[in-house]
């Protein structure tokens, strides 16, 4: 590229030189032309002076005057002929007093001269060009004064090509001269032999321009470009205009500069060669090292070592050296960054990212079976860290790693999180995975010497994932081992192998959560009611609202499962709100159907601590036409007694009834039981189911009934299914029975039918009501 | 004696005419308004006028002095005789090729004179064969009423009342016959007649002008 630029510059210089030479040549030719014009005029003057001298001589001769005055034509002619012969004058004439030719030339030249001179009123000699049919003549006229003008003596010399060539011979350069005369039409014309090389129109244009600028310029001719200049000449006839056209071929002008141009060309070529050589030199000393640097930079970009070989001592070498330093420091920094990214700062152990890389590396080596991943969770790690300090905890982790390394020399061990170590072993058969985990547990569940003077009892849980045929990603493998660890902890089995079933259940729970949200949004959940039978009034006095979800694909979803999901995700608020609204609406419809029933609604313990929601629920319940009872588990209160009790008190103050649900299954505390201002105690079905066969259960139930009555609560027995249990409970003083024996949970439509049937029957207080269940639940 | 009566008649006529003569003032200017000298002003009555013998008999002189003719312009009535005395130390060869009166006096020296009678009206250009710069004019007029302007370009003619032609001739006037004329009638009192004529300023052979 540099070569190209230099070449261009050279070309421009050459062009400029050529232009300068042409311009100089033109200037010098112009000078020569102007000099020639001066010479021509000088010669002109000399010649016309010579002619004039002779003409004047004759015009002054007394005898000639006398003859002319007396119209002595013969004498005049003889005198003229005599002089013409003596002076070798080409042509001429004598014009008489009447203005007409008297002697000599009588033709058109004579007529033209006579005409021209008739317009002259001179007493002295005159001279100038006179052109006859474009042929120029040099003419001199001397008046014959006696002392008035008697006539003219005229001598003329034809300015033919010969004459012009004589003039051309006087110039130092071969100039071509011509005399042109302007016609009436404005066109400049001259003798054929002098103007045949030009186009008349362009030549005329050129002459007009040249007369204006008075400078030489270029004009095209059939013999190439000419440098020419036109100079005005005096005319004898004032009606004519003539010019002297001097021209010189441009090529001839340049010919003398040919050696100079050749020298320029040679210099140019030499310069071009130098440029090429310099470009090659530059390419080797500048371009090549730059390309090497470029390659090295690309190598560095791609993570390969990028070093440049230094061979010279110049600035390029300095640059290369600096580049090499940069490459080294980049590599160092990259190593540091990698180290930081792939290791646990506190212990220097590989971290989870490094662990993934290791497993990925195994996969890359084609090992995709017989790999076991064990996640070792240190139990109560947070406690250890709190008691012994952070650095102590880190030291413990490092110590455990030491132990593991000693057992499994070819295992890869990393710290997956603060309290979890990961161990990857290969090869390992699937049936060796659990024994391996047990061996690890056996080795680590010991008193571990953490520092020189301190030891600690460590308990670990292990999650094991063995990769056999499935192809999970390294991340998924670690995740599965961690899930197994969670499973082990949840199941308190210490060691658990990853269970794909549970794993898929977890996935399903996520799906189900989404579906639950959709069901809540579309109000697809239904509320069913289970009747509660009052022994004392011998009728159905109340129903318990139970939420049911009939999913299009899943069928009826277990309430335990979706209620748990709702509680965990917070959807329990929307769920409860919907149930409350439905129940209050249904209670109104029941009332208009003639049934005045209490409705019990399960109120999640999680909601008790949400005061805003409690207020919201209360506002809804205020719209109820009948009694609303909220069933709350005992446990919900015990978790946070202050808030729970406060909420319950508020409910009671607003006229709601409170029922203690599932009594007997949780951690029943008599202290709290005493504080809860409940109206009802519901004994869990597990006690009622066994009441007929188990003496102890019967005793417990009887005691619970007594206790509740003692605390001012009525008692509902759940799970009443048989007539024996029904009767037995009645005998124990139980107030209300609920269960399949009375009625299964049913949709609202069925409830109306059920209530109609039930009230139509004549019942005794001691008999289990019989009914037909209209619909299977 | 046979000429006596006509001469007497002329004299009588002239005297009769003179009895009713009036002054006619003429100013000759050039194109730029400057007075023109050497202009010959003539009055020719409509019926013509005889030139008295006394007038013809006056002495007219065209001298050569300092290699010049003097005066430059000499007006004479037809029939007058002009003397050409040579007052220079050199010889002169006076000639005229004018059709009105061609003549020549071959070389004659100092103190000598030649005479020539001019019978035909017209202008006669005089030259010297050996001195080209010498030039002069003799204007031969056909009327007794004529005068030549001086440097002030003015003349006053005493002419008979009546119609006639007033003319101004000048050797260098750029008109045919070098003359400008107009017809008019002269009364008892006459306004100054002004002529504005075109005169060529330079005459190479007449340096005296």
UniProtKB/TrEMBL annotation, chain A:
It holds the Pfam family EAL. GO terms for molecular function: cyclic-guanylate-specific phosphodiesterase activity. Residues 369-500 form the GGDEF domain. The chain crosses the membrane at residues 260-283. GO terms for biological process: signal transduction. Residues 509-759 form the EAL domain. Gene3D superfamilies: 3.30.70.270, 6.10.340.10, EAL domain. It comes from the Bacteria. SUPFAM superfamilies: EAL domain-like, Nucleotide cyclase. Signal peptide: none annotated. Keywords: Membrane, Transmembrane, Transmembrane helix. Residues 284-335 form the HAMP domain. InterPro entries: Cyclic-di-GMP_PDE-like, dCache_3, EAL_dom, EAL_sf, GGDEF_dom, HAMP_dom, Nucleotide_cyclase, Rev_trsase/Diguanyl_cyclase. PANTHER family: CYCLIC DI-GMP PHOSPHODIESTERASE PDED-RELATED, CYCLIC DI-GMP PHOSPHODIESTERASE PDEF. This is EAL domain, c-di-GMP-specific phosphodiesterase class I (Or its enzymatically inactive variant). PROSITE patterns: EAL, GGDEF, HAMP. GO terms for cellular component: membrane.
UniProtKB/TrEMBL annotation, chain B:
It comes from the Bacteria. Keywords: Signal. Residues 1-21 form the signal peptide. The keyword Nucleotide-binding does not apply. SUPFAM superfamilies: Carboxypeptidase regulatory domain-like, Cupredoxins. InterPro entries: CarboxyPept-like_regulatory, Cupredoxin. The keyword Signal applies. This is Plastocyanin. It comes from Asticcacaulis taihuensis.
């Amino acid at each position: 590229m540099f070569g190209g630029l230099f070449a261009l510059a050279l070309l421009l210089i050459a062009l400029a030189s050529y232009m300068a030479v042409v311009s100089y040549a033109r200037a010098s030719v112009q000078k020569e032309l102007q000099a020639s014009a001066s010479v021509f005029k000088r010669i002109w003057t000399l010649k016309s002076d010579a002619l004039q001298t002779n003409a004047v001589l004759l015009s002054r001769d007394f005898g000639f005057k006398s003859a002319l005055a007396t119209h002595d034509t013969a004498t005049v002619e003889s005198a003229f002929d005599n002089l013409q012969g003596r002076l070798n004058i080409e042509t001429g004439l004598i014009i008489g007093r009447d203005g007409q030719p008297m002697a000599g030339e009588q033709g058109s030249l004579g007529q033209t001269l006579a005409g021209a001179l008739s317009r002259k009123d001179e007493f002295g000699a005159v001279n100038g060009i006179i052109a006859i049919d474009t042929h120029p003549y040099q003419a001199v006229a001397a008046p014959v004064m006696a002392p008035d003008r008697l006539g003219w003596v005229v001598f003329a010399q034809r300015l033919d090509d010969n004459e012009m060539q004589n003039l051309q011979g006087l110039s130092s350069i071969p100039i071509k001269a011509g005399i042109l005369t302007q016609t009436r039409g404005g066109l400049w014309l001259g003798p054929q032999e002098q103007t045949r090389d030009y186009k008349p129109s362009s030549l005329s244009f050129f002459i007009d321009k040249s007369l204006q600028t008075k400078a030489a310029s270029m004009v095209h001719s059939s013999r190439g470009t000419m440098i020419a200049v036109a100079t005005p000449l005096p005319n004898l006839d004032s009606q004519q205009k003539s010019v002297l056209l001097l021209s010189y071929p441009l090529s001839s002008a340049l010919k003398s500069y040919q050696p100079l141009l050749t020298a320029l060309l040679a210099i140019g070529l030499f310069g071009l060669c130098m440029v090429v050589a310099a470009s090659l030199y530059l390419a080797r000393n500048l371009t090549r090292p730059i390309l090497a640097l470029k390659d090295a930079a690309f190598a560095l970009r791609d993570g390969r070592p990028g070093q440049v070989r230094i061979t010279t001592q110049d600035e390029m070498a300095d640059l290369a050296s600096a580049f090499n330093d940069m490459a080294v420091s980049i590599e160092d920094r990259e190593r540091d960054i990698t180290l930081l990214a792939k290791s646990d700062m506190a212990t220097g152990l590989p971290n989870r990212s490094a662990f993934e890389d290791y497993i990925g590396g195994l996969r890359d080596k084609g090992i995709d079976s017989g790999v076991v991943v064990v996640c070792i969770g240190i139990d109560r790690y947070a406690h250890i860290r709190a008691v012994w300090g952070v650095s102590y905890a880190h030291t413990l982790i490092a110590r455990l790693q030491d132990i593991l390394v000693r057992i499994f020399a070819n295992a890869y061990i990393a710290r997956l999180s603060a309290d979890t170590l990961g161990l990857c072993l290969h090869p390992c058969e699937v049936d060796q995975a659990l024994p391996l985990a047990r061996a690890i547990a056996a080795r680590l569940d010991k008193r571990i010497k953490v520092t020189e003077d301190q030891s600690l009892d460590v308990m670990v849980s292990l999650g094991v994932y063995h990769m056999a045929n499935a192809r999970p990603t390294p991340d998924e493998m670690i995740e599965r081992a961690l899930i197994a660890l969670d499973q082990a902890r949840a199941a308190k089995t210490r060691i658990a192998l990853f269970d794909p079933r549970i794993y898929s259940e977890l996935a399903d729970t996520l799906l189900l959560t989404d579906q639950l949200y959709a069901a809540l949004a579309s109000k697809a959940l239904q509320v069913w009611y289970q009747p509660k039978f009052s022994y004392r009034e011998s009728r159905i006095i109340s129903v318990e609202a139970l939420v049911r979800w009939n999913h299009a694909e899943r069928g009826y979803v277990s309430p335990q499962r979706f209620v748990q999901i709702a509680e965990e995700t917070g959807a329990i608020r929307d769920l409860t709100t919907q149930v409350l609204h439905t129940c209050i609406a249904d209670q109104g419809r029941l009332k208009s159907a003639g049934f005045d029933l209490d409705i019990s609604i399960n109120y999640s313990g999680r909601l008790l601590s949400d005061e805003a929601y409690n207020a919201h629920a209360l506002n809804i319940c205020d719209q109820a036409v009948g009694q609303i009872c909220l069933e709350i588990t005992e446990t919900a209160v015990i978790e946070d007694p202050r808030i729970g009790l406060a909420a319950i008190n508020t409910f009671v103050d607003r006229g709601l009834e409170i029922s203690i649900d599932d009594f007997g299954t949780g951690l029943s505390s008599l202290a709290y039981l005493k504080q809860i201002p409940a109206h009802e105690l519901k004994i869990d079905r597990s006690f009622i189911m066994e009441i007929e066969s188990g003496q102890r259960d019967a005793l417990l139930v009887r005691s619970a009934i007594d206790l509740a009555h003692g605390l001012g609560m009525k008692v509902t027995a759940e799970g009443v299914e048989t007539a024996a249990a029904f009767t037995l409970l009645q005998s124990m003083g139980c107030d209300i029975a609920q269960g399949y024996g009375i009625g299964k949970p049913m949709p609202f439509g069925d409830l109306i039918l059920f209530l109609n049937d039930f009230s139509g029957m004549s019942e005794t207080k001691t008999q289990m009501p019989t009914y037909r269940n209209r619909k299977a639940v | 004696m046979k000429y006596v009566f006509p001469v007497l008649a002329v004299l009588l006529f002239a005297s009769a005419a003179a009895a009713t003569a009036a002054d006619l003032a003429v100013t000759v200017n050039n194109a730029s308004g400057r007075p023109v000298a050497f202009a010959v002003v003539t009055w020719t009555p409509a019926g013509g006028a005889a030139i008295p013998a006394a007038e013809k008999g006056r002495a007219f002189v065209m001298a050569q002095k300092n290699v010049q003719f003097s005066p430059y312009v000499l007006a004479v009535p037809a029939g007058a005789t002009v003397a050409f005395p040579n007052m220079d130390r050199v010889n002169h060869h006076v000639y005229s090729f004018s059709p009105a009166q061609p003549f020549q006096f071959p070389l004659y020296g100092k103190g000598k004179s030649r005479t020539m009678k001019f019978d035909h009206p017209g202008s006669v250009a005089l030259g010297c064969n050996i001195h080209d710069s010498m030039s002069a004019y003799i204007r031969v007029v056909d009327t007794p009423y004529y005068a030549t302007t001086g440097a002030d370009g003015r003349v006053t003619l005493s002419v008979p009342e009546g119609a006639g032609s007033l003319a101004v001739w000048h050797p260098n006037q750029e008109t045919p016959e070098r003359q400008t004329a107009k017809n008019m009638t002269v009364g008892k009192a006459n306004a100054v007649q002004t002529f504005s004529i075109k005169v060529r300023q330079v005459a190479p052979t007449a340096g005296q002008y």
